[in-house]
Design goal:
It is a single chain. The chain is built from 9 helices and 13 strands. By secondary structure, the protein is an alpha/beta fold. The chain starts with a strand and ends with a helix.
Length: about 270
């Protein structure tokens, strides 16, 4: 295991805590470029947290750190009280083995800008693949659950279609169903509508609103201000690798306290 030396910090949330995600002083650099400069963030169970900010502000990098697709250089990230990507001994963090990280990722669904569906598989096969391959469900049960999930995202009539036969919005909804098939406790969305034609954005946002109503904990990197205002429980504005401002989405959008937030919102509203 590789070692990441970090000073001892606060203990993990106590049993029964409703904090789903806790990031403490998260730093990440790519060579000489420091992308995250000490991110602190808490997201409670059932909360929808929207991350806003200009390109290059570190939003997507931070999201990828939450499920250890990017390795942090300092700090800690916990999901449901469990330290992600590392084991701690004597104030030092040691990176987990890949199979241990993979086990942690199963509880964290992620939906990317691009849909990343398997082009040679049908819609149903795309959703069934991971639960069966990882031994979570028998194939018959996985197919039944996948069909239910696809019906939930409005694609119950597309089980036998291939990705190339679907619109971008439909492909993204398949990607959401695929992530849900792993029964995640947390969903991460990295600008899920940015690659879509404008008329297709609404159908994806509607699925996400439905998840929010069902109490799914979500962290959403987005430029969809209307979604953040309507659905978000918290809004975090990032710029230059730091959290500039955070709070209730309606309050931050209507009355931003920081000049950088005001300038950004003036351009996107």
């Amino acid at each position: 295991m590789s070692e990441l030396v970090v000073p001892a910090q606060a203990d993990a949330p106590a049993a029964g805590s409703d904090v789903m995600v806790r990031a403490e002083q998260v730093h990440k650099s790519f060579g000489p470029l420091e992308v995250l400069k000490g991110i602190d963030l808490e997201v409670r169970a059932g909360e929808v947290c929207c991350l806003l900010g200009p390109s290059g502000s570190g939003k997507s990098t931070f999201l990828r750190c939450i499920n250890h697709l990017e390795k942090i250089d300092a700090g800690r990230i916990r999901v449901d009280g469990e330290l992600i990507g590392y084991r701690e001994r004597g104030g030092k963090l040691y990176e987990l083995r890949e199979r241990e990280v993979a086990a942690q990722r199963r509880a964290i669904g992620m939906v990317f800008q691009r849909f990343n569906l398997f082009p040679h598989m049908t819609v149903l096969q795309n959703v069934v693949e991971a639960p069966v391959l990882l031994g979570q469900e028998k194939k018959a049960a996985a197919r039944e659950r996948a069909a239910t999930l696809l019906d939930r995202v409005g694609l119950g009539d597309k089980l036998g279609a291939y990705p190339a036969q679907l619109s971008g919005g439909q492909q993204q909804r398949v990607a959401i169903a695929r992530a849900l098939a792993m029964r995640p406790k947390l969903m991460l969305f990295d600008e899920p509508t940015s690659a879509l034609d404008p008329e297709l954005v609404g159908e994806v946002l509607d699925v996400m609103k439905d998840l929010a109503r069902d109490g799914m904990t979500m962290i959403v990197v987005t430029h969809e201000i209307g979604f953040a205002r309507e659905v978000g429980d918290s809004l975090v504005f990032m710029d230059g690798g730091v959290v500039v401002e955070a709070g209730d989405p309606r309050e931050v959008i209507a009355n931003p306290r920081h000049e950088r937030t005001r300038s950004f919102l003036a351009k996107v509203l």
